[in-house]
D-alanine--D-alanine ligase
Amino acid sequence: MTSSTPAPSAPVSAGAAGLPKQPNRPGAADSTPLVVILAGGLSHERDVSLRSGRRVAEALRSTGLEVVLHDVDADLLAFLRKTRPDVVWPLLHGSSGEDGSVRDVLDMLGLPYVGTGPRASRTVWNKPISKTALLDAGLSTPDYVTLPQSLFRDLGAQPVLDTVVRRLGLPLVVKPTEGGSALGVTVVTRAEDLPRAMVECFAYGETALIEQAVIGTELAVSVIEGPGGPEALPAVEIVADGSYDYAARYVAGETEFFAPARLTPDQATLVSDVAVRAHQALHLRHLSRTDLILDASGTAQILEVSVAPGMTEMSVLPQAIAASGRDLAALYRKIVDTTLALAP
């Protein structure tokens, strides 16, 4: 399942989105809920966020909601205080969007928002901490070590890397402990390539997560909360020509997706159960996406979990919704309605 190449994005702002002069509020003559979508920001994943924001805004507008796109900028707080939107949907990827900080601000403003709260977001944002929580819940994740850049300066890079290879073996995956969209991620099959992988990783953060590379079927399982609790959507199988890196995720034609994944019924049930358990173990809310590999032994090895899944034309969550037979816009509207219903 693939899509056409996306059009170049431009910065999103409240003005560019066409702010209503008098936003409709509950209790007014027209009580259409106002949804503010936060998209953009200054992280490395800004472009992905903008694309996600535009697509969700278009879908929600088609259901009759009033929707405003706003960047994370110096005007945001004043705008939120003035308009008091009914729901805020943070579609921010990378730092601030997924580390809980923007969600902390929304809590301080007393605004309902879609997605996980700040404390659980911080747990998920830090991959080693989230791995610990997953292991404590009895779930599987590749063996790993976490090493800050300062350690290499103190002990010498090569002795540390030699120790890593002896401990974890090859192949390895090197990634920043914080971040998404596979930025700074390298699959290492030869020990002599490990130093370069570390340099690329440290370009995106001060601490590296080095884990055993798992061979198997790469899957993404999205979870949506409904009246009966969290529910896994059909798994999406990812077949990349090489590593599932940034280009493979967002450039059309680089990756083949199978939605639903080519799994047996038992395998599909297993990975769905693992994604729901991860969602619950990490105390997530409304929606999440679990990336995992189903290895040759039949174990679902969790790579990472996202509290802000991408919503672009190539993102796996929209593909999973389509595979479930549900209407994309209607499901997004249901998420907003659920957030409104649970708002204090």
